[in-house]
Amino acid sequence: MGLYTGSTLHEVAHVVGAGNAMGKEISDTAIIVKMIRVMMLAPVLVIMSFALARTAVKVVSDGVKGTAAATAKRGKITIPWFAFGFLAVIGFNSFDLLPHTVVDGINHIDTFMLTMAMTALGTETSIEKFKKAGAKPFILAAVLYIWLLGGGYLLAKYLV
Quick one: pLDDT at residue 91? Predict the structure, then answer.
């Protein structure tokens, strides 16, 4: 159950809460699985950047060769610099150099900032925007939700 919880819940706090509700061993497993998912963010983003850049080069090169448009996009990739910063913060935090009161303060600031960001998104949302977006985003969200639950189930069933 810890493998399923850690592989399907999005937020670390949700994984901790759900895992603790089911027991210490399940919680420990869920947290480890979630941390592995979090640590894989940066490498996956870099690999995706290279893959998407290669796809863009192929699409551009299939057009008219030698034009400015064909040469402008060749070899350009978008590097997710925040992911490297994310890994640096994870590495720094693993050394446990900061006092726990400072870490707790940073966590409170983080929670507040995330809450404000979600509030800002919520205040910008209206029924009209949902109507304008149409059904495609909702269908995609449903497919991704089913993929996440099904993938988590298969992962838990066949790897444990």
Answer: 87
